[in-house]
Each structure stands twice: as C-alpha cells, then as structure tokens.
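Second opinion, please. Please look over this fold, written as tokens:

===
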Amino acid sequence: MSSGPGQRFSLIRREIKASRGGSDATRRSESAATRQGFLTIGPKKRPPREGYYGPPKCPVGTMFASRKECSEAGVHFPLVAGISGSTSSTRRDANPGAFSIVLNGGYEDDVDDGNTILYTGAGGQTNTFSKTNSQVENQDIKHHFNHALRLNLYSGNPVRVVRGFKSESRWAPSEGYRYDGLYKVAGAKIKLGKSGHQVCLFRLERLPDQQPLEELQSHLP
C-alpha cells in the first residue's frame, strides 16, 4: 500500500529531526542550557576563577597599577569587594573561608599597625562607591564575606593582604596596590564603631619568615 502525501511529509520531518540530533524538546533544552553557559563557553564566557589559600605566584612587595591587574595576577580576584572568599563547601571550594583582603581606606574603623591589622568587615555603608567611609547601620557577622573571614579563625588558613594608595596608613603605598604577604586571622569581635554602629573587627597578624614591611616601604611607592 502506497503512502499518501501526509505520511511522506511526516517521514521526512522525522528524518530531519534525527539529522539535527534529537527532538524539538531536546533541542529547546540544549538551546536554553547553551544560553546559560552550561554547554559552551565562548570568547566572552570564561569559567569562574577558583579561590585558593596561600601565596600567589608573584613575590611579596609586587606592585599593581590597578585592582584589575591585581585580579589578573590572582592575588585578589574581586574588582570592588574588599574580601574575597567562599562560605559554602563545594567541589571548587572544598575548604570555605576568606582567601584575600584589600586594605584601602574603605572603613573608618580600620587600624593598620603593619604586622597587625584590625580589619573592618563588610556592610553597613550606603553603597560601595560612596565617597565617605562612615557607617550608617550595623554590620552583620552573618554577612557572607564576614562569615568567610571568621571561618579562617577556626581553620587557620592565611589570607593574602593587599594595601592600596587610598589608605592613610603609613604602611600603604603612595600609588597603586601592593601585595604585602600572608596574615592569619587571630581574633574576631563585634564592637561599637566610630559612627555609633556595630562593626565586625578581625585581628590579622602577619606570618613570620616574609620580607619585612620596612624593606617594602624603603624602596617602593
């Protein structure tokens, strides 16, 4: 029995689907996944960079002209945030915590004594790009960046410290950003800050057997 036009068209359509690699539903699913970056990574879609503990490939005292250069060198990945870290245990970050911090005059309660730092946690300001470093509300220790930094207190993992030119500390460079080595998180507390709001303060202590900060100050900006 010969097939009619409708049957022949149906057969051709099934052959076209097979040659394209599956059903309409499958292709729609693949197309959606592709748009979300799960199947293909084009020139503008790069895989996330993994956080890590310990020293970078560059030596202590390395200078960077911008936060972007610092990020590309793998010293401190975020371009704006002062804390880089993870609070969830994933395949990528099996040991959550903070990887690095930037000390750049962003918070009025920071105290930089060189080998020891009282570092203010994240949050409690109007916005990241505000021209003032004062607090307008309480900080929360449960903030993901603050929680990440507190995890180092228990794990013992060190954080990389970068100092920036906006800091008024005598240990800050006069221009750009400088990688100043590894510090351990030795303590954490919540106290009333200069603006009358609660802030999270972390005590950082520089690890021994690194190039002294005095030497970095003597021949770098």
